[in-house]
């Protein structure tokens, strides 16, 4: 990881901005100079203030500081997603074992529960099914957090199908109420929409129609003014699924049209939801 002051200096000079253009009543020229030379540190407030002055976001700055790499947790999520898509169970098991080594850190334990839950979704082995203690630890952690971030959203998203449906719904409802964490952060908003759609589908599967309609309404509001094309496709699928399930309809035209749109846009997306729909219909018949 590069030195913060050194990175700030490189960005500042590349933009042709002088120290005198940044200095003000919040931070002096000498403070900026010492920071850039690595002779002193500054508070987070002053750093964000200086970054505002050179039109660089904190996320962009940290990306450069980390040598143009994502943070460790995001890198791990990308790795997990690749293992999941490749059905690479052995690699997921190794990652789960590694994350399970440090049992004293709650964040390490929660990361391990996420991977364990993904392994259960793939293998359906009871070995990887979250037990009551683990579910309680996840819910207690999430309910006590006022400001959910990327980690908390990912934690719930990964463990959603391993939690009791009542708990999945309550936690999704909880995060939807925290508008300050996603209204102006597109990545968080997109992830929360995806999470909410998955909870909606779970509620439909369990025939929890009041909960389903609550989520349907909340998601439709979130999608109203954004161009989340993939999410809108999956939401349309969920709405059609709800219509079939709740009204016992034999007419599958809406859902077949949505699946056809998925096939045109993304073959993998179509495969996933076509299989889900076939399983859903088979479960109804049985």
UniProtKB/TrEMBL annotation:
Q: Cite the HTH cro/C1-type domain residue spans from the record.
A: 8-61
Pfam families, per the entry? Rgg_C (PF21259)
Q: List, alphabetically, the CDD domains matched.
A: HTH_XRE
GO function term, MF aspect, one: DNA binding
Q: What is this protein called?
A: Transcriptional activator, Rgg/GadR/MutR family domain protein
The source organism is Ligilactobacillus ruminis ATCC 25644
**SUPFAM superfamilies assigned:** lambda repressor-like DNA-binding domains (SSF47413)
């Amino acid at each position: 990881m590069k030195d913060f002051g050194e990175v700030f200096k490189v960005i500042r000079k590349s933009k042709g901005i002088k120290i005198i253009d940044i200095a003000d009543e919040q931070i002096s020229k000498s403070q900026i100079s010492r920071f850039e030379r690595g002779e002193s540190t500054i508070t987070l407030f002053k750093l964000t203030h200086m970054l505002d002055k050179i039109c660089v976001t904190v996320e962009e700055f940290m990306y450069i500081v980390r040598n143009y790499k994502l943070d460790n947790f995001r890198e791990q999520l990308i790795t997990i997603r690749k293992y999941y898509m490749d059905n690479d169970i052995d690699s997921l098991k190794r990652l789960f074992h590694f994350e399970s080594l440090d049992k004293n850190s709650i964040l390490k334990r929660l990361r391990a529960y996420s991977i364990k839950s993904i392994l259960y979704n793939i293998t359906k082995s009871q070995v990887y099914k979250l037990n009551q203690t683990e579910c309680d630890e996840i819910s207690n952690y999430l309910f006590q957090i006022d400001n959910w971030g990327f980690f908390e959203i990912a934690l719930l998203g990964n463990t959603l199908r391993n939690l009791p449906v009542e708990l999945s719904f309550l936690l999704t409802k909880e995060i939807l109420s925290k508008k300050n964490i996603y209204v102006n952060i597109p990545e968080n908003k997109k992830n929360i929409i995806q999470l909410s759609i998955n909870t909606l589908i779970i509620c439909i599967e369990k025939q929890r129609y009041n909960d389903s309609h609550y989520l349907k309404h909340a998601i439709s509001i979130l999608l109203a003014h954004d161009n989340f094309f993939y999410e809108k496709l999956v939401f349309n699928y969920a709405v059609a699924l709800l219509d079939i399930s709740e009204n016992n309809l034999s007419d599958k035209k809406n859902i077949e049209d949505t699946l056809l749109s998925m096939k045109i846009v993304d073959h993998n997306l179509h495969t996933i939801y076509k299989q889900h729909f076939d399983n859903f219909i088979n479960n109804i018949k049985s």
